[in-house]
Design goal:
The complex is a heterotrimer of chains A (241), B (487) and C (186). Chain A has 241 residues and is of the alpha+beta class. In chain A, 24% of the residues lie in helices and 16% in strands. In chain A, the strands form 3 sheets. Chain A has a 5-stranded mixed β-sheet with strand order 2-1-5-3-4, with helices on one face. Chain A has a 3-stranded antiparallel β-sheet with strand order 6-7-10, with no helix packed on it. A two-stranded antiparallel ribbon of chain A has the order 8-9. The radius of gyration of chain A is 19 Å and the shape is globular. Chain B has 487 residues and is of the alpha+beta class. Chain B has a single domain, classed as Orthogonal Bundle (Cytochrome-c3 Hydrogenase, chain B). In chain B, the strands form 6 sheets. In chain B, strands 8-7-6-11 form a 4-stranded mixed β-sheet. A 3-stranded antiparallel β-sheet of chain B has the order 1-2-3, covered by helices on one side. In chain B, a hairpin with a 5-residue loop joins strand 15 and strand 16. Chain B is globular. By secondary structure, chain C is an alpha/beta fold. Chain C has one domain (13-104, 137-182): Rossmann fold, CATH 3.40.50. In chain C, 29% of the residues lie in helices and 19% in strands. Chain C has helices spanning 25-31, 36-43, 72-84, 93-97, 109-116, 160-172, and strands spanning 13-19, 44-46, 60-66, 69-71, 85-91, 136-141, 151-153. Chain C has a 5-stranded parallel β-sheet, with helices on both faces. Chain C has a two-stranded antiparallel sheet with strand order 4-6. The chains are: A alpha+beta (241), B alpha+beta (487), C alpha/beta (186). The interface between B and C is large, with 70 and 61 residues.
Chain lengths: 241, 487, 186
């Protein structure tokens, strides 16, 4: 970090940024946690989940899409934003069938970890209990759309990293959903392989490698060991070095 | 003697309900129909809960089932976790478990039996036995026991705590853990955890012996009453190992009749549907299983401690076996059928589970690190059966090539006891209630009989399978003209 | 000068509990407070609860509700406790979001009943229909969709330490809160 690096203020603490970094990237590299779900360091920003919403010089913005600029005063850790993020997480929960007790992603799930971080004690809103399909046609990969939050990480990974475009988001509003790129619409009829990025990038339990569920004991899962606010910044700071 | 299941003319009778049945797990309701002289004409234990697990689990991947299905019950989740995983071991194609994996599962199961039996005796049943069935309602609970018998209450709590800690060390949580996975276990037991349990187990064995002693002393205050209260002569069923010894974790099916005569023995439990059949009645969500060859009227049976200690040839630990021999002499070697005898049998089992746990804690394999079996070809269908604290538990699954469950059938321990519990409460009603003014204390007598069976009523609303249709034709006076049965 | 008056003993906190369409695991987790139950007994007493023989709830301070609402009887019990309790707490996943029993919500309850109670011929069904059986609902509902709920303790079940922390906070008049190590949904 050279003396000429610019800084922004995040909750009144100066945080350096490199040219071209977004506020979120600068924050995470500097060890400051801003909650996020559809962001991935290897992909272009998506700006869909809105969990990274912050107040920048008095106006709301997505930290993942807004570039850091000298003189910004960013607020992250304020009660209004806590409540707002919690409401967003609650809406995500009631929209799908997020049954943590029976789900093998529990303890490694970013949605769950964010809910803990925002102290969600109840989903609050009326539960949808939607009917969502499960596609187990692939020999190695399970697709359980009960848990899909439409973050499009799988879409981006399959298209931009694997070069296969196995997944796409179709429909509008509440009817938007993931579909699979094969004549039958089934995952087993695509060229997805278990080694693909798209098979491992899902932050929740919607895309899972088969037959390995519950092999990590309780107490040793990712978010048993530390909350997501620490895990995310530790990874980001580690990546910087 | 009147058939107390169905009154001849129910519209002429007065209804009294015990609702809810308290100090049991789950929701049960007893209805009693009485005439103007308070004579009892009908007594029924209704199971009023319905889950539908066997249907909604279809379409879920098979490895998810044990962790989900254990949530049918918060007292005995380990039983479901183990029974379901025993089936999934086979469906996933795994061969025999490693010694460490099997011993960890057994230790987990024995820990569960200790906590469940302790809970049932100390927390749920002891108030009736220590204070009296008609004692003051405000005191007739674990807090009242703690006030009057603090040392006893403390021991009960600490015995249950020990069992729960065993579960936590192996499954990761005291209630609804993971730990057990198809093919083995997901975590080895650390030496520190093993040592912690080992240092506590001797006291638990001692306390379990004293719990047996306590039940014996209670029995001796009124032997005739204890022997015959809520008596219903029943066939008995449970698992025994190849030698005919009691084995909670694995074995084959044995059934004996009310006199101790053989009905069947060493039946492979995967063929359970060929020996058992389940009936439906209109007035309970819980089904009524019976032994096929004996028919619905004579084929109903009991499971759980009172059946297990009497049908096995031996309990393979010394202290429990000695206690069992004493128990068997109560009626000169004839099988015992009184509801309260369950408590004695249950404490013998708790002692046995504690002794078995001690043996495993002394076994070096228990801290071994080879946890997973070898894998072979997948199977489409499998059955997992275990002796849960409350009785024989059947889990039966089919899964497709895509790994999703296509079929599930459960016969849950308490379901096996459905008819036996109904018979017990009818016996109590006929002997203690009929012709008398009904008080809260008298109604509690009915509940005491139910409690003795340690029912787990949330679990028990499950089964799917072949069931006959029965139609009764009755005349205007309510008399049975003919009965049609199909299936 | 007269001697100072003796401070009268505080009345015991009255606790009611029930398990609606739950598995009883949250009650078992409450009992996992182990010997702390003797401390609790010093300052609290139980009203209606599966652990006591009080069949109907009177006025009480805190009601702990386990389980969601799956039938008419659950609603009656829930409303009885809400009417009598100053503070109502939803304990565990089933009370908070329906939990495992709510997995049936994506299916039609009539279809499920017909399937479970199918006859030997495989065509007809013999669903129990006695009036003594409470009416089943189309779905399993979280309790806050039926009554106003004051607090929620998540978990399946919440650990004994989480329940104990919450109870202590409520009884002692603090804002109830769970730290990261006590907040789990599974």
């Amino acid at each position: 970090m050279s003396a000429s690096d610019a800084t922004i203020l995040i909750d009144e603490v100066p945080v350096p940024f490199a040219p071209g970094q977004t506020i979120l990237e600068a924050a995470l590299s500097g060890g400051v946690y801003i909650p996020h779900l559809c962001h991935h360091p290897e992909f272009e920003p998506h700006g869909s989940c809105k969990l990274c919403s912050v107040v920048v010089n008095g106006r709301n913005a997505s930290a993942c899409t807004m570039k850091a600029a000298a003189g910004q005063e960013v607020e992250v850790d304020i009660p209004d934003l806590h409540a707002y993020r919690r409401t967003l997480v609650q809406m995500l929960f009631v929209e799908g069938n997020h049954f943590c007790p029976g789900c093998e992603k529990s303890g490694n799930c970013q949605l769950q970890a964010l809910a803990y971080d925002s102290e969600m004690m109840t989903p609050h809103f009326v539960e949808f209990y939607p009917r969502r399909p499960v596609d187990a046609s692939h020999p190695e990969v399970l697709l359980d759309l009960n848990r899909c939050i439409q973050c499009e990480l799988c879409v981006r990974a399959s298209r931009d990293v694997d070069g296969k475009s196995v997944f796409a988001l179709v429909g509008r509003g509440m009817a938007s959903h993931i579909v699979v790129n094969s004549p039958t619409g089934r995952l087993g009829d695509t060229n997805l392989s278990a080694a693909d990025k798209a098979a491992h990038v899902c932050p929740v339990g919607a895309i899972l490698i088969k037959r390995v569920g519950f092999s990590t004991p309780i107490g040793e899962r990712l978010y048993d060991l530390e909350p997501i606010s620490e895990e995310a910044t530790r990874c980001a700071v580690g990546a910087e070095k | 003697m009147l058939n107390l299941e169905t009154a001849q003319s129910p519209h002429k009778l007065r209804r009294v309900a015990i609702e809810p049945v308290t100090r049991v797990e789950g929701h049960g309701k007893v209805t009693i129909l009485l005439d103007d002289e308070n004579r009892v004409h009908q007594v029924r234990l209704h199971i009023v809960e319905f889950r539908g697990f066997e249907i909604f689990i279809r379409g879920r991947p098979y490895w998810e089932v044990p962790v989900a299905v254990q949530r049918l019950c918060g007292i005995c989740p380990v039983s479901h976790l183990l029974a379901a995983t025993k089936a999934m071991d086979l469906i996933a194609g795994y061969g025999p478990l490693t010694p460490t994996a099997e011993k960890l599962r057994r230790l987990l199961h024995y820990g569960q039996i200790v906590q469940s039996h302790a809970l049932h005796f100390f927390h749920l049943s002891s108030p009736d036995l220590l204070f009296g069935f008609e004692s003051e309602v405000a005191k007739r609970n674990i807090i009242g026991v703690a006030a009057a018998f603090p040392d006893l209450a403390r021991r009960g709590v600490m015995t249950r705590k020990f069992g729960q800690e065993v579960i936590r060390h192996i499954a990761g949580k005291r209630i609804h853990g993971t730990g057990v996975i198809p093919g083995g276990m997901n975590k080895a037991l650390s030496r520190a955890d093993r040592d912690s349990m080992r240092s506590a187990i001797d006291e638990i064995v001692d306390w379990s012996r004293e719990a047996v002693g306590l039940v014996v002393r209670l029995h001796e205050t009124n032997p005739g009453f204890y022997k015959t209260f809520g008596e219903s002569r029943a066939n008995m069923m449970g698992l025994v190992d190849k030698r005919g010894a009691l084995d909670f974790y694995h074995g084959a099916l044995r059934a004996r009749d009310a006199d101790g005569g053989a009905i069947f023995d060493q039946v492979d439990y995967a063929t359970y549907q060929s020996v058992l059949q389940e009936d439906i009645k209109t007035w309970s969500y819980m089904k009524f299983p019976h032994i096929r060859t004996l028919g619905a009227d004579k084929g109903w049976y009991r499971v759980g401690p009172l059946a297990r200690v009497q049908i096995c040839d031996v309990m393979p630990t010394p202290l429990a076996e000695a206690a069992r021999r004493t128990f068997l002499r109560v009626d000169a070697g004839r099988p015992l059928h009184g509801a309260l005898m369950y408590h004695w049998a249950r404490m013998i089992e708790m002692l046995h589970a504690a002794e078995m746990a001690r043996e495993l804690l002394d076994d070096p394999d228990i801290v071994g690190t080879e946890l997973m079996a070898d894998k072979g070809p997948r199977r489409e269908e499998a059955v997992g059966v275990i002796e849960a604290p409350r009785g024989t538990l059947f889990h039966h699954y089919r899964a497709g090539d895509d790994d999703l469950v296509t079929y599930c059938n459960l016969i849950v321990s308490t379901t096996n006891n459905n008819q036996a519990m109904n018979e017990a409460i009818r016996a109590v009603a006929a002997r203690f209630l009929s012709g008398r003014e009904l008080t809260e204390g008298l109604l509690n007598h009915i509940e005491v009989a139910i409690r003795a069976y340690d029912p787990c009523l949330s679990c028990a609303t499950h089964a799917l399978g072949q069931m006959p249709l029965e139609v009764d034709l009755v005349d205007a006076g309510g008399a049975l003209v003919s009965r049609l049965r199909k299936g | 000068m007269s001697a100072p008056a003796e401070t009268p003993a505080l009345p015991k906190v009255r606790l009611a509990t029930t398990s609606l369409a739950g598995c009883f695991g949250c009650h078992m987790s409450l009992l996992d407070i182990d010997e702390r139950i003797f401390d609790l007994a010093a300052i609290a007493e139980f009203d209606r609860s599966p652990l006591t023989d009080i069949k109907h709830c009177g006025p009480c301070d805190i009601a702990l509700i386990e389980g969601g609402v799956c039938n008419a009887e659950n609603v009656h019990v829930l409303r009885e406790l809400r009417a009598n309790a100053k503070i109502l707490v939803a304990v565990g996943a089933c009370a908070i979001n329906g939990g495992l029993p709510a997995m049936r919500n994506r299916l039609d309850v009539g279809d499920i009943l017909n399937e479970v109670y199918r006859d030997a011929d495989g065509v007809g069904s013999h669903v129990p229909s006695d009036p003594e059986l409470p009416l089943l609902f189309d779905k399993v509902y979280p309790i806050n969709e039926i009554v106003r709920v004051d607090y929620f303790i998540p978990g399946c079940p919440p650990s004994a330490d989480a329940i104990w922390k919450y109870l202590n906070d409520l009884i002692l008049g603090r804002m109830p809160r769970l730290d990261h190590d006590l907040l789990h949904y599974d």
